[in-house]
Write a structure and sequence with these properties.
3-stranded antiparallel β-sheet; two-stranded antiparallel ribbon; 2 helices
């Protein structure tokens, strides 16, 4: 499930998506890995200016303690995005056609019955 966060405070907010909380809740590492003799992980961050709504984020962002505290203080508004139900694939079986007699146009030589006529 995905969520969007809106900064409702009057200041810019920065949240560090720490490996120990965010990546663990996500189930995979989302950190940037720097190359070198000793590769190390650099956690990503989320920066929200005043009144800005984030793009759709994984709900693992709600496991970050700073985000939880900001939501409780009312500095962040959370909007959950519900996935649309999947539609079944169209059937490949041919649809039965009606008999030609049933789809024949009405006989033109017959007069139509008018309302109120006996």
């Amino acid at each position: 499930m995905t969520v969007s966060l809106t900064n409702t405070s009057n200041r810019c907010q920065v949240f560090v998506l720490a490996h120990e909380t965010y990546c663990k809740a996500l189930g995979e590492c989302a950190c940037d890995v720097e190359q070198g003799r000793a590769p190390r992980r650099t956690p990503r961050s989320l920066t929200l200016a005043t009144g800005v709504t984030s793009p759709a984020l994984d709900d693992a962002v709600l496991a970050v303690p700073d985000v939880v505290r900001a939501v409780r203080r009312g500095e962040l508004a959370v909007k959950r995005h519900v996935a649309e139900p999947t539609r079944p694939a169209p059937s490949t079986t041919p649809t039965p056609t009606s008999a030609p007699e049933a789809s024949r146009p009405p006989d033109v030589s017959r007069a139509k019955k008018k309302r109120g006529a006996p």
